[in-house]
Amino acid sequence: MNRENYQKIIIYSDLAVAALLYSIGKLVFAVMPEFEFSMFPLIPSFFFLLTLLILISITKAAIVDAKKFHLKYLITRTIKLLLLVAFCLVYVFCVGEQKISFITSVVVCYLCYAVYEAVILKKFNDMVSDKSSEVKE
């Protein structure tokens, strides 16, 4: 990952994770028809947009001021968890069909995106650290 195209890498890799989760979900729901869940495409789309906004904002904050990275990271984590709880509650109370499939899909997507975010932020941190050490030397 380099400084010039890190945003493109984030967008493309986030899109790839969403497409992969969508494909796996479609496959699972095709193999197990008892878990038929018509609202499934909404979940990877929600995670795609939420993760994209969070990663872009965190990385921009880190480039502008590295000290703000930790604060911005904690704030976005809290907001993300609150949005996920609200997303689940709205679905369960308003739509209500296939609650178990919905919650399971959200948890699986959350875990996949948590790993994805950790990898991307680690690579980004390494990139920023390498650039800052080059400047100091």
Short précis:
This protein is an all-alpha fold and 137 residues long. 84% of the residues lie in helices and 0% in strands.
Uncertain regions spanning at least 5 consecutive residues: none
Into how many domains do the coordinates divide?
1
Instruction: Report the portion of residues in β strands.
Output: under 5%
Topology, number of strands: 0
Question: Helical amount among residues, as a percent range?
Answer: over 70%
Determine the N-to-C terminus distance: 21 Å
* Major sheet: none
Q: Helix count, per DSSP?
A: 4
Mean pLDDT: 83
The H/E string reads HHHH
| Radius of gyration over all CA atoms, rounded | 17 Å
Structural class: mainly alpha
Report the principal-axis shape.
elongated
Would you mind describing this structure in some detail?
α2 (about 40-65) runs antiparallel to α3 (about 70-95) and α2 (about 40-65) packs parallel to α4 (about 100-135). The mean pLDDT is about 85. This protein has about 140 residues and is mainly alpha-helical. It contains 4 helices and no strands. It has one domain.
Using brief descriptors, characterize the structure shown.
mainly alpha; 137 residues; 4 helices; elongated
Topology at a glance:
Elements: H1 6-31, H2 42-64, H3 68-95, H4 99-136
Helix pairs in contact: 1-2, 1-4, 2-3, 2-4, 3-4
